[in-house]
Amino acid sequence: MTATLIRGRTLSFRRVPASLDDADAYSYETDGALLVENGLIVASGTYEAVKTQAPDGVPEIDHRPHLILPGFIDTHLHFPQMQVIGSYAANLLEWLNTYTFPEECRFVETAHAQRIATHFFDEMVRHGTTTAVAYCSVHKTSADAFFAEALARNMRMVAGKVMMDRNAPQGLLDTPQMGYDETRAVIEQWHGKGRNHVAITPRFAITSTPEQMSAAGALVREFPDLHVQTHLSENRDEIDFTCSLYPDAADYTDVYARYGLLGPKTLFGHCIHLSEREMDAMSETGSIAVHCPTSNLFLGSGLFPLKKLVNREKPVRVSVATDIGGGSSYSMLRTMDEAYKIQQLQGERLNPFESFYYMTLGNAEALSLTDKIGTLEPGTDADFIVLNMAATPAMALKAEVVTSLADELFLLQTMGDDRAIAETYVAGMAAKAELTG
Ligand SMILES: [Zn+2]
Questions:
Q1: For 47-58, how does the pLDDT look when each residue is reduced to its tens digit (9 = 90+)?
Q2: Per-residue DSSP letter, 138
Q3: 78 C-alpha to ligand 1 centroid (Å)
Q4: How many other C-beta atoms are found inside a 10 Å radius of the C-beta of residue 363?
């Protein structure tokens, strides 16, 4: 592939911003550029400097005055729940039993899984999400459809076949042996193929017997480099039910600890109601608490204590995610707008630089993938997005009074959605422009 020079204002984080004035936490070029070749960023910086490194006659794409950022990363969502979004339920367990489980049963059919996979990746590209960490359904067919589509689009994706062997309809149950065998088969078939990463995915303790949790622990020991994803401490009834199923465990977190599932590659969705002991256990193992704001508000699950988790003496690693279809938007911008409000309700501040850090580098750190994604650093994947703060008439009106980068980011977060994503580059290719409809 020949080189391409992409010009625009560029923003990329180096670390979490300590405050609104912490300009060392990021690099921002008002006339910046990326030199892209063979799916990678080979140079980044000022346009002037990058231009000197580019071959003569290199094609240029000029996105000024828009803002170029690393592609958004979504660290928790459910690929089979695209038709579950917006289902009217009182709480998590009612929502699962009434809408979600019946819908996921349909993913035993390859044609259905393939159709939804097409829509799923279209929505990711449309919303500027270039890496997502997804739950498939219990059926291997769903993981096959997901990874085949990710491979066809050359996207860096993390996903897993869900393991679940109780407390759900028959059509959604595997067995401890079957969950183990099929997860191994998915790993062998898809992990490392293209940019695919397979995650070990026990849905949550309620839907796995102790025997299945042991099988999940065995997989984690056999494949220590793989990501692990599950749910933890989302809803009070869920916590009580879990503790009744595992009476020997000290608490919900201890259930996972007993099967060796805590660790620096494990993503725990929600973590809203953790005790201090549980937070210590998360911190000591480097486990990640995944904040899913639109889902937490939609299902009435509770207010995620983000600042408490990251600022305590033993800090807990945190990432952010949509949790489609408990979540109500595919947009990471909409997600961080709700995250901001959740902090407001707790008397905490979440400044716009922090929000954009979390959507990019922060989530890449949570996935231990900063050598590949989350920044505009040379040598990383050329997955980046172009943001337009004047994408709608109302945004354009507000943009007239924007005077700083912080203002611009906050406008994008507060009013933006997929319309603010002017382009999504996947491995150096303009992917949003390719979408039909
Ligand atoms: Zn979830």
A1: 999 999 999 999
A2: S
A3: 6
A4: 30
